[in-house]
Amino acid sequence: MQEKYQNRLKLAFPQDDFIWIGEAEPLPWHPWFGQFDTVAAVLQQERRPDMIVVSLPAAEQDHCLIALRQHGATALCQILVCNDSPLSPYLGNGHWDDTYAEKYQAYTLRRQQVKLDCEDISHKLLCYLWCHQEALLAPRLIPEQKYLYDYPLLTAWGMSADDSFSWLNELQKNNWITKASLSNRLRFCPSCHSGHLNYVDICPQCQSIDIEHQSSLHCFNCGHVGAQQSFRKFNSLSCPNCLQPLRHIGVDYDRPIENQHCNDCHSLFVEALVEAECLHCKLSSAINELHVRNVYRFKLAPHGRAFVRQGHTPSLFNVTPGEQMTRGQFYWLLDWQNKLAKRHGQTHCILSVQMLNVAEFLSAEGEARGFAQLDALQERLRSVIRVTDACSNDTQDGLLMLLPMTDMSQLKSIYNKLFNLKELQSAAKIELSVKAVTLPAEIGENVADWLTDQLIKAKPM
């Protein structure tokens, strides 16, 4: 029985696809794997494994993780560790345990859906975040370095810490990644951009750092203000200026709110000024002059997920048989076709297909299975779109199609093909809203507004 079980696992996880680095202690539930003592032995063979298990001492394991992420053949693969190390939360994909089969299946399903090349580092990051479910690009604190934080995954891919922050901002502008959470807010020297700063309280009058807290008294009789110690006379208080005995607070004297004293210019003040002295270049700067940087954890954005799966400008709808164009081009074409339809007595149809519950559907099905079903929907769309049809992505979840020389009576077969897809789905359903508008019509000057109004009034099929 044990031999049969091992043979089944060997078939499920071929040796070429599953690698163990380090000392192994096989358990009954372990699959078959190829074993290597060092990462160099793996990389020399130019292997492209789907899963790697690392079981090494912490320092050696971190070196191994960096080498695996740097190498093109293993940069995206699933790497599990037997023990924690400083870099394992950033470069690994979790712990090796008996849930490996689920992790492996989820990874391979997502990897199969990747349509984007990984030559460019931005594409590589998007593919990495897609392939590893719930993966985050996480920053690491490095207090000994002047930049204080880096992203170990990007560092392994050859990007400097200084460049990574501005580069990640560009990816956000493209809507490929989005902020998952704020890790820290840092301030840096405006001259040398070091985060090693010393915050110093200084006198607001002479900017001296020689200040201290001091309890003071204010004599109502002559207005003298001085240190409390100078008012003491044996076991009583009296003003050192006018010698008036001070018996009752609020009547003879009070305590001023200025409780800080400068030992250089002897001024009293309520709050000291705060300056930041750079420990590298020694420049002193006001707090509002420092450069502020927010350090975030990042995750893959919806546009980034679609980009990875489609290999081009992201949209859930990816239809190639028709002429896919921008909305501006599509609206111009509608206006032109409307004029032709009026002149020659033609009839054209504009079809709107909208997905209504994409977020809920992906949450219920899981992204990998959910997107696989969206791919099936796209295949169904390809079967109904003709080469002469023009298409444009109305929104990320919507598609507009211009069907020339088509009237409403000819749309029944298209509706049937689209809605028959629901019968092939699991418990969760993709809810579609399909509406149609015909040309010719009195469009007016603004085609976009006219089409929006017509689609609002149209009844879903």
Give a quick rundown of the structure.
It contains 15 helices and 25 strands. It has helices spanning 2-12, 39-44, 58-70, 88-91, 100-112, 121-131, 152-156, 161-173, 228-231, 302-310, 327-344, 358-365, 367-384, 412-419, 447-457, and strands at residues 18-22, 34-36, 51-55, 78-81, 140-141, 149-150, 177-188, 197-202, 211-213, 216-219, 225-227, 232-233, 236-238, 245-246, 253-254, 260-262, 268-269, 273-278, 284-286, 291-300, 323-325, 348-355, 390-395, 398-403, 432-439.
Unreliable segments (pLDDT under 50, ≥5 consecutive)?
1-11, 314-323
Task: Give the amount of beta strand, in percent.
Answer: 15-25%
Instruction: Label the structural class.
Output: alpha+beta
Terminal CA distance reads 57 Å
Shape: flat
Q: Report the radius of gyration as a whole number of Å.
A: 34 Å
The total beta strand count reads 25
Our count of helices gives 15
Number of domains: 3
Sequence of strands across the biggest β-sheet: 21-23-24-22-25
Average pLDDT: 83
Overview of this structure, please?
The structure is a single chain. The protein is α+β, with helices and mostly antiparallel strands and 461 residues long. It folds into three domains: 2-182, no CATH class; 197-288, no CATH class; 315-457, Reverse transcriptase/Diguanylate cyclase domain (Alpha-Beta Plaits), CATH 3.30.70.270. Helices cover 33% and strands 25% of the residues. The chain contains 15 helices and 25 strands. It has helices at 2-12, 39-44, 58-70, 88-91, 100-112, 121-131, 152-156, 161-173, 228-231, 302-310, 327-344, 358-365, 367-384, 412-419, 447-457; strands at residues 18-22, 34-36, 51-55, 78-81, 140-141, 149-150, 177-188, 197-202, 211-213, 216-219, 225-227, 232-233, 236-238, 245-246, 253-254, 260-262, 268-269, 273-278, 284-286, 291-300, 323-325, 348-355, 390-395, 398-403, 432-439. A hairpin with a 5-residue loop joins strand 16 and strand 17. The radius of gyration is 34 Å and the shape is flat. The two termini are 57 Å apart. The model is unreliable at 1-11 and 314-323 (pLDDT under 50).
